[in-house]
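Support reply, case 0932

Customer input (verbatim):
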Amino acid sequence: MADSEYQAGVCNIGGTERTRRWQMGFASFAVAVLYVAVVLWFGLPVTYLLGTFVFLYGGALGVLQAQKGFCAAYGMSGRYGFDDGSGSVEDTAALASDRKRSLLIIAQASAAALLGTSLLYGAVLSL
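Our regenerated output:
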């Protein structure tokens, strides 16, 4: 598959967009670590650690989209973006396939963030 070729439900972003997703993912994970450090350092209530979910979700979403070459937001809105151009998905079957893939990626990112947040919260409570 070429890096600039739209494939319904499979690939809707190219190299530059994938790089942005990697950057977003790793930046979100870094913010999650910083957030946890601040909560623990200042002795804030342990329940504040549940807020880590937001950052872990952003990290997981970015990494999953980069790995798969598929942007969930583009998929839900019927768009694609490659280094040599962007556009809209007109075919209803392709749009349905893109939306299904988007929901799967969102569910996977949510599950990963929930698992990570639960493990972190449980670990801190057990200290």
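We compared this against your earlier run and they match. Two observations from our side: Residues 13 and 81 are 5 Å apart (CA to CA). DSSP finds four helices and two strands in the chain. Please reopen the case if you see a mismatch on your end.
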